[in-house]
Amino acid sequence: MLCSIYKSSKKENTYLYINKKDDFSDVPDSLMGTFGAPQFVMVLKLEGRKLALADVEKVKESLVTVGYYLQVPPPITNLLHQYKAEKASQTS
């Protein structure tokens, strides 16, 4: 299975996977509005591939059922909360 990957012009580290290059017909207009002007990154063969920040099986399933897959960056760890939790566990 081949897919085309686009980078968001508005959201850092956000990528959109679609079935055909430059065919955004399955992507909702509201998503395209927040995604911004898509910047083409590459065409990728998904079979036998491991993706860094996405489960390749979920990507393939979403491409078949929905027509696109949106990859968003992982949440940012709040280091202050993490530090406080570690300190609290050390004093207990």
TrEMBL record:
It comes from the Bacteria. Residues 1-84 form the YcgL domain. InterPro entries: YcgL-like_sf, YcgL_dom. HAMAP family: UPF0745 (MF_01866). This is YcgL domain-containing protein C9J12_00920. It comes from Photobacterium frigidiphilum.
